[in-house]
Specification:
Layout: H1 5-13, H2 20-32, H3 36-52, H4 56-74, H5 77-91, E1 96-98, E2 106-108, H6 116-125, H7 133-139
Antiparallel strand pairs: 1-2
């Protein structure tokens, strides 16, 4: 249901009606839909809810998703590499994280860059050589 744009718009306008997890998943759906602007707003709404719900670990996972999304939307290889490096450092502190693939199952944090969203993004940007796990290793 959160994959429907009108529901995502409703969640942006009335975030108090949704849990932090639902807002987080709505943000991930926005990422998949290619709408980083809506994803950013939803990530922030979810972060607010996670803070209210005292879901510290969920907030940490959200921030990693947010950084990866910002990196993909950066459009500048240097900025993208910087954000991906920061996300990799944060991932190293997490045991698990939601996959970028619906239904956003929990996966080992080390596998985040092997989910479908990243494979699709990497395929598009491999031609420039600017992103993907290789870019993380090179940036480190």
């Amino acid at each position: 249901m959160l994959d429907v744009p009108i529901i995502r718009s409703f969640a942006i306008t009335f975030p108090g009606l949704f849990s932090g997890r639902a807002l987080h998943h709505a943000a991930l759906h926005a990422v998949i839909a290619g709408d980083p602007g809506a994803a950013e707003v939803l990530f922030e709404r979810a972060a607010e809810r996670y803070r209210l719900e005292l879901e510290v670990e969920a907030l940490a996972r959200l921030r990693v998703h947010q950084l990866v999304t910002r990196a993909r939307a950066a459009g500048e290889p240097g900025r993208e590499a910087e954000l991906l490096l920061e996300s990799a450092q944060r991932l190293a502190r997490l045991g698990q994280i939601e996959s970028f693939d619906p239904p956003f199952a929990m996966i080992p944090a080390s596998g985040l860059f092997e989910t479908g969203h990243d494979r699709r993004s990497r395929g598009a940007s491999d031609a420039s050589g600017a992103s993907g796990p290789g870019a993380l290793r090179e940036a480190a």
